[in-house]
């Protein structure tokens, strides 16, 4: 394991590379207001972030990533287009089984540009690929925008679509909900009995917990309404399964997706955006004949990605996390821009992994 000074030196090398591409250096505070992150991710973020209290900030979190503070900074008056780079520690709780450090250094590149999103996607990907080229890594790509469009186009209630979208980044929970909404799986234990009562609110037990009686009543009303909703048609579930199971090269995936779009017209605009991205990547010199596309890729990342997603991996080292990851997060700029928005895409590199892999090649 390289010492911290060597990791910082490696991070500085990447940062200088991005600065040479026109990126402005920024240095967001390590301590971030918790309110913003809780608004974005809900209480789930507490399981991944280190939470503390500050007399001035109130509830605060050690920086779990750079993208959110960089977007906040840019939306307060950044130029257009804008390119930023940064380096420093981030802090994320890890499951014991991962054996990964809860604190590590990232260096990144973020691009805010509304002129040509496909070209911006290609620029970020190609620059990170160039920076990591000596390591011979495998790149994987996906598109959360296509998955979101597919869910939005399902023949079901808006409440069910919202539930599926909320868990798009949690594959097991998403599958459980999809199977239930399609009638493939039974309702949770006790729900049918509850809804069969003439008055589901009638109960001998006292109301406990954080929910008020009105909130519990609203929840029961939503469950009753959901129980009346017809199952999602099996043909649509099968098409969604096909989409999630896709594995192809970028050069071949577009026609396959266009074929799916005949029966899933909701995904057509997102598929054409992917096609434009493929052309832009090829124009940047990326070998799209050898670039992998995975239909389900990116679903375990932070939830702000809503379009292109990518990662770079060391083949033969499944014990290591991705050396670099990134993607598009247009919706995040809408949330943090408070009425303003701008298409944005970025990526991060973990320099300590670069050093470890470099040592293995020495």
From TrEMBL:
Gene3D superfamilies: Bira Bifunctional Protein, Domain 2. Residues 14-351 form the Aminoacyl-transfer RNA synthetases class-II family profile domain. It comes from the Bacteria. It holds the Pfam family tRNA-synt_His. GO terms for molecular function: glycosyltransferase activity. SUPFAM superfamilies: Class II aaRS and biotin synthetases (SSF55681). Keywords: Glycosyltransferase, Transferase. Homodimer. This is Histidine--tRNA ligase. It comes from Sinisalibacter aestuarii. The lineage of its organism: Bacteria, Pseudomonadati, Pseudomonadota, Alphaproteobacteria, Rhodobacterales.
